[in-house]
Amino acid sequence: FNFRKICLYICIKNMVLYVDRDISSSCVKKDVLKDKMDDLYEEVLFAILHNIGCNNNEVMMQQQREDQLNHLCQVFHMSPEKHKVLLSNAIVEMAPEKRLKVEIVEAKDLKSKDSTRLPNAYIALFLKSAPEDKHYTNMKQGTCNPEWEEHFYLSLYDDVLSDTLMLEVWDFEHKNNKTGTLQRVKSFRKLVKDFTSTSMNAKTDDMLIGTATIPLRSITSTGMTMLYSLDKPNKIKKQGVIKLRIAFSVQKKERKDDCDFIEKQQELLKMLLLYEQGTLKISEQWCNNWSIQSEAILNQYRTHGGLSHILNTLCEWCVYSHTEVPLALEVFNKLLKVLAKPIQQQALNNKEEIMFWNGAVNVLFKCFDVIHRQVQDSKMLKELQESLHIISTISSFVIPEGFVLFPQNTYTYLYDSDKHKDTDKDIHNVLTLTIQSACTLWFNQIQQNVCTKNDISEGLSKDEANLKLMICIIQKVTSFLQESVQNVNPIFVKVVQLSYTSIMYEEYEKMVYDYVKPKVDDFCMSLKDLKPEEDCSALITLFELYLEIQKLYNLGKSIQEESYNAADCIYKSSKSLKDYHEWFVSGIKHWLDLTAVKAKRIVIKAIDMDDFKTVTDDVQYSTSATDALAMFVQIKSFWEGLAWPDPEQNYTFITKIIRDIYECYKVYAESILQRLELYEDFTKWCVAINTIQYMSESLEALAKSIGDDCVMKMKRSREEIEGCKATIQAIIDNNICIVNGEVIKIIHNLALKLVPLIRKAFADDDNSYYKKSNRTTFRRASFSGLRHSFMTFTNNNPVVCIKINDYRTVINKLESILDVLHKALSTYYFIRIKSAVLKEISKLVSELIQSGLAKGRPTSFYASTLETLDALCDAFDYDIKDEEVAKSGKDQEEDDKVQLEQVRDVLKLHALETGDLIHKYHLERLEQQELSRDTPYGVLTVRCRLLATYLRIEIIHAKNLVPIDKNDACNPFIKVTLLPIDKFNGVDKCTTRSKTRTVFPLFDEKFIVKLSEKQLQINDAIICFSVKHKDYLGNQNLAQTFMRLSEVSKDSCNVELTHLALMRPLLNGDAFKALEHRQDDKRAKDFLKKIYSVKDDNRNKFTQLKRTLSLRHSMLKKGH
């Protein structure tokens, strides 16, 4: 216990000793500081009393001097007694010698006196009252814009107000013997005697560029920086301009260095600045606007100490950077403009350089603090611009080695995070980190402000409220970025060449990723339990969030594309919004499924409310089409609004959307078909069909539009893009085919309603046929010329089947129905119904033909049926414009028309007389001959011409005929016949002489046949050349060839040879089959017998023909 007491006593005693020592040390410091302030006060009084820095014209009045003294006393808080003592000390000191301080800064646009080179300029300056005391600058060689930055002190004499400063700018001529002396400062003193001291027109080799005169009475007490034009006698144009800094000064006191005075100058600045702070309003910044007394005191004291303009600026920089007075940043910018050049040229010594950089630490902190704040008005924007100019200027300086420009205790945010630990702390990187730090601060503030608002989540579920909060946060971030792009970023790019918004976006992107993605993932996982009948408002809010993120990402993408520093970020975050759409994939899939179910329900409801009446008189569709199509367009617009960025996923979703749309369309068509079963009115059926057609065309265009937009965004080769287009088109076509199946059912049912009426136009049973008597061509709109009767023949006994009035009733009723369909139905489906009816007519007529052939009906039966068929087809013949046909797809009707035409052609054949049918057979052989290129039966060469009514036939030769005998030869001759034989009765037949044992006969025979005018007008007249083999047992047919009479040349000369391919008779063809059905016709039987005999003869010669063809083939290969 005693030991503890002793220890405690010793500790207390030591603490007392330490406290006493600290108190005595602080007292000493106060005394020293007090002495320094007294010395400073006394020197300032000395400068005021002796009007240092003022010319005689500006000698202060007694009252002005008293104002300055009172102002100084208030600034230093000096007591009157102490003031009197120090004032008396200043009065007794000797007045200083006054001088004129001249700083020659630079010259601009000097005129060269030698056209072969630029001027080598130097300046001579002196007072008019003392021309012998000249001072010279260095020579600046070869430039019109020389820079000197040189100081001169000129002694002033009694009559200062009447004196003038004289400046002469000379162009040094290298021919002068004194060239070597011009490269050194003030080396021209050695050449003073070579110039005339009293005149500007000195006799020298150098050429005068121009002169300037400055009256001393124009120089203010604060000094001035001015541009003066250079003039020259007898020259009107200016010879250039020169920039000077001029002020009155005094002779410096002898000092070891200027450090003591610089410290006093800084102390004076601090005192005056603190005093000026008291005059500022609240939140007002000081802009270097001194009061009159303070400015006069500063100028006089600076002149008293002889500080240069640069050192004085450096003092202001040091004081302003360490003061707590709110200063405008433009003050520092003005100071930097003065200090920039000497710092870059390393004109400052080590102490002065350290002074600048110590101040730069605080100034930069103020600038970065401005960047930390959000720009809300023009004043803050101007402050930001000033701070960036300061940062840009300081970044161009070389930082002294080992100097810490960003200490850790000041810039804590640069050292807080591990990701900044190894980052170089240069100004550029610190600026970037400052922007990132500001973004983090602002994002947290936005989050706090949004979360405190209760009106956003009021009345919403928890998930939807979270989505709304995220939307609000992203909207504010996007808005702030947009404002920055317009206002702030241009300043950053212009001043520091840095994309402010690019750095901001990258930082916001990371924070949005961290804040939004987990919440979106959780919400999308919860959508699995959502059912179509439940409230889907949260799902809609999800896509609102998607759109806001998309807007933010697109803004960031445009920012990055325009960024000046795309690679300038200190680190690249892996948390990018580039794949933001991946967060919503599961939500999109579920939304598409829900949309498909809801769309089908809407379609069914629209059809239930549809009464199948046209919306207006101008359109042909009902209200259900408008409702359903509007829903599909909304789906398309919604998807286009999403603008899904991944083309491959977009393609997958688009194909699903197209399939879902057509699934709804299929449900739509099925529902319409069910509703139509309740109606018998043709008009409602027509409106329903037109509605389906309108939906089909609209949905096809809609689906193609969606698909094309999707495919064009895919980054694939042209072949792959075309393949994707084909896939989408295949999906569309397949679904259209599926839906068209339902439409065809409707059309088929509607067409079947017309078939019973059409059947009444033909016989009621298979044993009847129609016969027409004196009947004119039937027209749909007129029946006045119709003269016909329909009769049936049973066992050759005529019985009336349908009377003329009954037939008219059928046609009139059919016509009225067709008129209703044509007016109420769209052209496309009107044609489709026509096609369906024509198909039924084709089936009916085919049945009649087969029945007639089986019963051996005469040609009149088929003629009557053909006329009835033409009458019915004429009833369906509606005029349709070409453009309308192209749009309506009438090509689909062509197949049915082709089938009907085939049936009509069969009827025409069976309605022909036997002679005409035989000629039809010959025409078919001619057509086959014209189509064939090679023939195994040889070629006949002839020359035919028609002169008036005379037909001249010249048979030249034949080649490659089919051999008959064992010697591979034959005895050919030609027989010429004009067909049809019935119409060329009395015409001489022409037969050539036979040639013996040859397959290459040369005939060279001519025949002239006399024809009548009527015979020349016969259509499809044919010249038949029959090649026959002459034999003792009987002539044999080798081959035949044909030539159209209409193709015979009518030229009297220069008729070319015609090479005709030889052919054997055909045992097929429509005409041949029709002839085979005429078993009771003798002429037909004889003609067929003749053809069959040729066939049997050919069959015997088949082996020989095969051997001959083989021999010919081998000869051709050998080149014979």
From TrEMBL:
SMART domains: C2 (SM00239). This is Putative synaptic vesicle protein baiap3 involved in vesicle priming/regulation. The keyword Cytoplasm applies. Residues 543-672 form the MHD1 domain. InterPro entries: C2_dom, C2_domain_sf, Munc13_1, Munc13_dom-2, UNC-13_domain. One of its GO terms (biological process) is exocytosis. It comes from the Eukaryota. Residues 804-921 form the MHD2 domain. Belongs to the unc-13 family. CDD domains: C2. Keywords: Cytoplasm, Endosome, Exocytosis. GO terms for cellular component: late endosome; secretory vesicle. Residues 81-229, 932-1059 form the C2 domain. It is found in: Cytoplasm; Late endosome. Pfam families: C2 (PF00168).
